[in-house]
Amino acid sequence: MGRRVVNWIESKALFGDEELHARYLVEQLHPYWNRYGPGMVIYWHGFVEEIAEKKRFGGVLVREAFPNKEEIILFEPNDYEAEDRKTEALIKELRLEHHFT
């Protein structure tokens, strides 16, 4: 999603506070991370910003809605040319953002 790889999404139909998120990290999100790599949790009723800002909460991307179409970049494993174009475009964008040439 954007510049972050998201291999899984966990959906929670509740409000995410620090205590609840910390419990989910231990019981569910870190085991997902260990099995499948980076992921995202969606708290549909919002969340306290501290859980998205603090790395001590596990580095799991936290959102309150599913990403919109423009935020999602899909991997196309059988279309290597398309993947090369996406990679080149992303590298160019990152260089422009950070003023690298």
Structure description:
- It is built from 3 helices and 3 strands, in the order βαβαβα.
- By secondary structure, the protein is an alpha/beta fold.
- The protein has one domain (8-97).
- Strand 1, helix 1 and strand 2 (39-43) form a beta-alpha-beta unit.
- The model has no long low-confidence stretch (mean pLDDT 83).
Q: Which characteristics define this entry?
A:
101 residues; alpha/beta; 3-stranded parallel sheet; 3 strands
Task: Give me the secondary-structure topology.
Elements: E1 8-12, H1 18-36, E2 39-43, H2 49-53, E3 61-63, H3 80-97
Provide a quick synopsis of the model.
With 101 residues, this protein is of the alpha/beta class.
Structural class: alpha/beta
Strand content: 5-15%
> Total number of β-strand segments?
3
Q: What general outline do the C-alpha atoms trace?
A: elongated
Strand order of the largest sheet: 1-2-3
Give the total of domains. Answer: 1
Estimate the helix proportion, in percent. Answer: 40-55%
State Rg. 16 Å
Low-confidence runs:
none
